[in-house]
Amino acid sequence: MSPALQNNSAQSSLPAASLPASDRLLLRAGSRIAPASDRAEWRRNWHAELWHMHHRRARIHNLPGLSAGLLRDALWLRVESWRRAYSGTAALCIASVGGLCVVAALLGLAAAGRDQFRLVIGSRIPRFLVESLLVVIVSFATSSSRYVDQRTTGKTLCWIRRQLFLAAKSALLLVLAFLLSADLCLPLFTRMPMTADALQVFTFELCAIAGLMWAFRDQDQRCKHCLCALSTPAQVGRPSHNLLEWTGTQQACRFGHGVFSTPEMLSTWRPHSHWAEGLELQIETTS
């Protein structure tokens, strides 16, 4: 930030009265937008910048642009703090899928109108429930779980949270698949109802199975405690030494809850992916 940052230590101690009332209002408004962890440093930097703009000898009248930059900088800090706090969390996943459901419903309303949309959706809800039950049963029966939970004694609450998250995510994905299949077939319901009906069933089943497969995979790629997305997979071991040592990929929780290991080759001594945490993780690293 210009020469003001060079004299930041001296100018940051200046009283707020050294600035015009409009700038003090801007600083107060920006302070409310900026996150609490960065608020003090943000206020010192921008106070020094505004003071420099008003008191340097060769004045450049660029205060409107500087004021807009002040508010944009505070807003960016707020958005960045939200991104760090919610990126990869279970709440963001549920909110994202729910938002897609709302968008799909609005698209159907815009394309067919309120009355026709309610008629088509309402008449197919009982069939949707039956089809969803069949798709869930088939998906659970055909999916091979790569994750084996070990030493979960005393962690019943974490297990319940994982199952509730998976159930909520799967239910929203089924609703999204139903709405998308209805949106795609809405133009055909008035002219070719039988064809549209069959196409809607096929589209729903295809989207629902794809969505549930993603839900199971996403569930494996999350921490078993906080349900946050794990880090990018990192290669561990040497592929040429599969018979002598463990080789595969590892993903760690960003909060240090544990590490998820996936073997490159299944063997009798490591037939599944493995979640290690706490004392168990320390024993593995030292052995």
Describe the structure concisely for a colleague.
With 287 residues, the protein is of the alpha+beta class. The protein has nine helices and five strands.
Low-confidence stretches: 1-14, 149-154, 282-287
Largest sheet: 5 strands, mixed
Binned strand content: 5-15%
Radius of gyration: 28 Å
- What is the overall number of helices? 9
* Helical content class: 55-70%
Mean pLDDT comes to: 79
Order of helices and strands: HHHHHHEHHEEEEH
- Outline, from the CA principal axes? flat
The strand line-up of the biggest sheet is 1-5-4-3-2
Number of self-contained structural domains = 3
What's the β-strand tally? 5
Strand-pairing-aware structural class: alpha+beta
- End-to-end C-alpha gap: 51 Å
What does the oligomeric state look like here?
single chain
Describe, in plain words, how this protein is organized in 3D.
This protein is α+β, with helices and mostly antiparallel strands. It is built from nine helices and five strands. Strands 1-5-4-3-2 form a five-stranded mixed sheet. It is flat, with a radius of gyration of 28 Å.
Offer a few descriptive terms.
287 residues, five-stranded mixed β-sheet, 5 strands, 7% strand, disordered N terminus, disordered C terminus
Note the topology.
Elements: H1 8-11, H2 21-33, H3 36-55, H4 63-86, H5 90-112, H6 114-142, E1 147-148, H7 156-189, H8 193-220, E2 234-236, E3 248-252, E4 259-263, E5 273-276, H9 278-286
Helix pairs in contact: 2-3, 2-4, 3-4, 5-6, 5-7, 6-7, 6-8, 7-8
